[in-house]
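Supplementary Text 2. Reproducibility record for the structural model of the 163-residue chain.

All settings were left at their defaults, and a single model was retained for analysis rather than an ensemble. We include the record here because the model underlies the residue-level annotations in Supplementary Table 4.
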Amino acid sequence: LPISTFDQAEAVRLLGLVETANCFVASNEADDYDAWDLIRLLTPVAEKAKPSLVPQRHRQTLQLMSNLASCHYFVATHTPGGRSAEKAESMHSFVSMKQRFIEGSAANHGRSCAQRELLYFQALQLMLAAELPTALRAGYEREMEELCTLHFGQRTLPEELSA
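Retained model, structure tokens:
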């Protein structure tokens, strides 16, 4: 088997592409794009940011997954009637990408720390708004309740922090 080598210059270049994509999504210019256009712009960047080339738990990589997931959620929940296959595919993409964001963010804090950032809570909240399989939903509901109790002294996310 050939030994793969890490190309630091390529990793930095690709991480720059990821950061540029995230900055675009946060810009006023992105407001002129619909969710499908953003998916078409962001997907090639995400495909280039392969695990062997870009750290998957880097803040920018996680943000790109979250941005793409949010676009897919919008498509899945706002696509008109007769396109159920597109809606289902986008919901599947949303769940997969948002799970990667949630898992990567949790891993960045380590196993012995329950500290979480606002974006993490908002990602959980969006997952709970989606149509999820019962077991997956139950796990996210339990996690949200436990973290909210720890962070805010109540079982739900405070209204002023809701997305």
